[in-house]
Amino acid sequence: MMSKENVARQPVTVGEKKLLLQKRRLGVLLLGSLVLLGSVLGLWLWKHRPSRAAHTFTGTLVTPPRPIPDFVLIDQQGRPFPFGARLNTLNLLYFGYTSCPDVCPMTLADMVKVKRLLGEQASAVTFFMITVDPERDTPEALQQRLAAFDPAFIGLTGDRAVLQPIWKAFGVYAQREKIQGSATGYLVAHSSFLYLVDRHRQLRLLFAFGTAPQDIVNDIAYMLHQEQRR
Hints:
The protein is α+β, with helices and mostly antiparallel strands. It has 6 helices and 10 strands.
């Protein structure tokens, strides 16, 4: 009988060598396949990772987003302004008027704060004021008013017949109120929301008057992040 020592010293046949080589190659191939599969799975998980923790909106989320019809108005430079063609990634709109004694200047001041708080992200947001008093809000009046807040804000005016469908599309209320003894002759009672519109002309968010600028910024920053993923 052959001892264990002699068995261990038996030469490896050519067939056994080939079998060992095949097993090694199979092991390397299997290991490479597992590495590749892991890489592909990791990439898929990274691409489909949650964007961030669930966001609680301060503004009113418009679900589904409401399409806004395109329009052309006149800006504070007296030039035609094609709304749809000039939209930024996001656009914050306010409907007001230059003779407004209280709510409008307060809202414009908040818009200035929003822009400042956005920092570098402000380049992806355009700020608008659209008039609800077209008879008095000439391009010159808008330019003078906005210069007191931020000359980069875009003021838009036009004929009442052109503006009324725009007000309706946004759900804006605008009604003259005569004031006895007023130097301006009348005030305009109007909606005081801020409206966030995306680059696809869709209304996404509404902010009530008095919403803290930082809360508006938080919502806008989240929406910008979402837009970058589209």
